[in-house]
Design goal:
Layout: E1 5-6, E2 10-15, E3 18-23, H1 33-48, E4 54-59, H2 70-75, H3 83-93, E5 99-103, E6 106-108, H4 110-117, E7 120-123, E8 128-130, H5 144-152, H6 154-163, E9 167-168, H7 169-175, E10 180-181, H8 187-199, H9 203-214, H10 217-235, H11 239-249
Parallel strand pairs: 3-4, 4-5, 5-7, 6-8, 7-10
Antiparallel strand pairs: 1-2, 2-3, 8-9
Length: about 260
């Protein structure tokens, strides 16, 4: 029998050939290394379960994932090396079976990286997607500089990276960032319906086809996160980064000085 609880914030429930993975880390499902490890462990367990052919990734609360809690993290001595976090991201991209994400509210920063791990994204009308790194005086991470252009094209990805704007659900649909927008009350059912449609098919063929389509995605994410982490390392030492963290916490435009 598959384990159902991974750490304090990740649960799995099996519905036929579909595993429903629920993340619940109040108040906004902020990421941490331990949380990401638990999530990666959950998807490893799904891969090891012969009866499961597809999964749904969903989140409790108002927001799917609002990224890293930078105020708390900075108070604990800074982000330090982000490579341990990205190690877990690579594990997620190494998952073998299809994933459908059900996205409500904010999917920001690492939260955007997390939804891009999925093969398909179903969103509610209140969903908003943002790569807000430059607003923090920081470089994008989570492999997004590889995965986001691959999904929505280089121009749209650059627009998201350089403006840090929040992309609403309807625009995300038009850009190909999400596959369907449904009412909030129908979100989880719609994601489960798509997962069941996938899971009706031959499991070995599903894994084989997905592997061909994704090719060396996990290796590419690993290489890209190494580059991203190097850029983040020196930017983390700048005045602009400190100001960016403060300004976002205070909900104001940053007063950046270029050093």
């Amino acid at each position: 029998m598959m384990q159902t609880q991974f750490g304090d914030h990740v649960q799995i429930a099996v519905d036929g050939h579909v595993a429903v993975v629920t993340i619940d880390r109040p108040p906004h499902n902020h990421v941490s290394v331990d949380f990401m490890k638990d999530l990666a462990d959950a998807f490893d367990a799904i891969d090891a379960e012969p009866g499961v052919r597809c999964s749904v990734l969903q989140a409790e609360g108002k927001n799917f994932c609002a990224g890293a809690d930078l105020v708390r993290t900075e108070g604990e001595g800074g982000l330090g090396s982000v490579n341990p976090l990205y190690d877990q991201a690579v594990r997620l991209f190494s998952a073998q079976k299809p994933i459908v994400a059900a996205v409500q509210g904010a999917a920001v920063g690492a939260g955007l990286g997390l939804v891009v791990v999925a093969d398909f994204r179903i969103a509610s009308p209140d969903a908003k997607f943002a790569a807000n790194f430059v607003k923090l005086g920081f470089h994008p991470g989570f492999g997004l500089t590889h995965t986001l252009p691959r999904l929505i094209g280089p121009s749209k990805a650059e627009l998201m990276f350089l403006t840090a704007r929040r992309v609403k659900a309807d625009d995300a649909l038009a850009w190909g960032l999400v596959d369907e927008v449904v009412p909030l009350e129908a979100l989880r059912a719609a994601a489960l319906t798509l997962a069941r449609e996938i899971a009706e098919n031959a499991p070995l063929a599903l894994v084989s086809t997905r592997k061909t389509l994704r090719a060396d995605l996990a290796a590419a994410v690993r290489a890209q996160t190494d580059k991203e982490a190097a850029e983040q390392a020196w930017l983390r030492k700048t005045q602009d980064y400190a100001e960016g963290v403060r300004s976002v916490a205070e909900r104001r435009v940053g007063d950046f000085v270029g050093r």
